[in-house]
Specification:
By secondary structure, the chain is α+β, with helices and mostly antiparallel strands. The protein contains three helices and twelve strands; from the N terminus they run H-E-E-E-E-E-H-E-H-E-E-E-E-E-E. The longest helix is centred in the N-terminal third of the chain and has 9 residues, at 6-14.
């Protein structure tokens, strides 16, 4: 199999737009949160719908999700880029707590939901697998919060707002 240069792969993936999500967790493994664009549905069928997220092995959120066995995917609205930057580590945070000064509500699992996301999916961890430098977590959706607005998108290494096509 021919090797694809990392830079070429990253350049190609930068052209794929995705929603911006803050994944949070809380429990015995601690409270943690991180910004991710790697989130996708796995299945709407079966006992519960399932979603997939990918987190870097060095993220403090990775072992917390593994220990807590739950997570909440907060899909950000188009006006929430500052939350994305905060949980991605690109914005200054008072102290060392990304949640400091951020309003949250506990989902049924105990994972924090941001106060006003576009959508929040509360998930029970059902599977985890490491591939390369990333952990793939699959969660069974146990609760959903529906907000209002339009999603924040990330593509071509920048935030975007959706516009109607045509």
């Amino acid at each position: 199999m021919p090797a694809i240069p990392r830079d070429r792969f990253l350049d190609a993936m930068s052209r794929v737009a995705a929603t911006v999500n803050v994944v949070t967790t809380d429990g015995p493994g601690g409270r943690a949160g991180v910004t991710v664009s790697a989130m996708t549905p796995v299945s709407a069928d079966g006992a519960a719908p399932t979603l997939l997220i990918c987190l870097h092995e060095d993220s403090r959120t990775t072992p917390a999700i593994a220990a807590n066995r739950c997570f909440c995917i907060n899909v950000l609205r188009e006006d929430q880029a500052s939350l994305s930057d905060r949980f991605a580590g690109r914005a200054p945070v008072p102290g060392d707590d990304k949640f400091d000064g951020i309003a949250t509500l506990a989902m049924p699992s105990g994972a924090p939901r941001l106060a006003d996301p576009l959508v929040a999916f509360d998930c029970a961890l059902v599977a985890g697998h490491q591939v390369g430098t990333h952990h793939i977590f699959i969660g069974a959706v146990t609760a959903i919060h529906l907000g209002e607005g339009r999603p924040l998108l990330y593509g071509n290494r920048a935030y975007h707002r959706p516009e109607p096509a045509g």
